[in-house]
Amino acid sequence: MKTIAIGVIGAGLIGRKHLAKIAAHPDFELAGIADVNAEQVAAQNPDARVFADYRAMLDEARPEAVIIASPNQLHAQNGIECARRGIHILIEKPVTDTLETATALIEATKAAGIRSLVGHHRRHHRQVATLRSLLNEGRIGDLVGVSAIWAVHKPDAYFSAAPWRTQAGGGPVLINLIHEIDFLRFSVGEIVAVGAVLSNRRRGFAVEDTAGVLIEFENGAIGSFFVSDSAVSPWTTEQGVGESPEFPFSGESSYRFMGSRGALEFPNLVQWTQASEAPNWNLPIQAQRIHAPTLDPYIAQLDHFRDLVRGEAASLQPVEDGARTLIATLAVAEAAASGQRIDLRERYGAC
């Protein structure tokens, strides 16, 4: 079967990661790269066609598919131009930066009939697939609640290298928590309401450095989430699964799923149960570790995108679903500012 000609818009940190995966993938052929720093990118990729204008790349290289890894505020514009040309897209998270631009992108992809995939790569982890199966099988009974932590200490250089990270939208809610919100929607079920408290006490930037979030799921479960980029801990998904060399492996679980008949840790996939048909807090709780093979989620994501482009699979996350993750994440800041519980059900109707 012929290879798929693919373009990449944006050759920053995540764009370079995609380029490395494409180079190693037998089913894709790089058609071109678009980046405003074209000379620098061309020097880094001497065998590639590099364009300063992404529209020129779309028109001259004529890729069948494109990975959009540009800054968030450009996602919708890039995706709409791809849709107008009938080009399938894998668009990095967040799907766009605002609900208005997300709506415009959704309309464009529907009108053009192109296939789309949002790059929430954790949906492609084997550990995540195993967790979903365990929850759906009722291995811990009815899910009652979820408790989770994502806490790291980002260095000063992280902020001085990109001053926008000190402003609204550059904090751990939209940059990091959005991954966790999507993971929870995918593994537990739809989020119907959120409440939150934000703080910028540690750094004093215009954006939050710490947040506490209360989450209500459609199935009745309740979740709590602590997120911070100013606290040292081994408890993040990145460190727990060892998905990237930039994050030292801790092997620690940052999630606890509690059910009516037991509990599960993630990503370690340790199941806690009692040897009784009738749960009782006076009975001992036993642990069992469940094995799930590891794999590179970015390669698995490319495999899925290949099947999607060829019409052999339905999208694991089209732009409409990515917009729901954006809606739930943006509502966290709104809930903190208003002090109110934000119900999301009517907002999802727009997607």
UniProtKB/TrEMBL annotation:
Molecular function via GO: nucleotide binding
Record domain GFO/IDH/MocA-like oxidoreductase: where: 129-264
InterPro entries from the UniProt entry: Gfo/Idh/MocA-like_OxRdtase_N (IPR000683), Gfo/Idh/MocA_Oxidoreductases (IPR051450), GFO_IDH_MocA-like_dom (IPR055170), NAD(P)-bd_dom_sf (IPR036291)
Gfo/Idh/MocA-like oxidoreductase N-terminal domain location: 5-120
Domain of life of the organism encoding this protein: Bacteria
Gene3D superfamilies cross-referenced by the UniProt entry: Dihydrodipicolinate Reductase, domain 2, NAD(P)-binding Rossmann-like Domain
Protein name according to UniProt: Predicted dehydrogenase
Organism: Bosea lupini
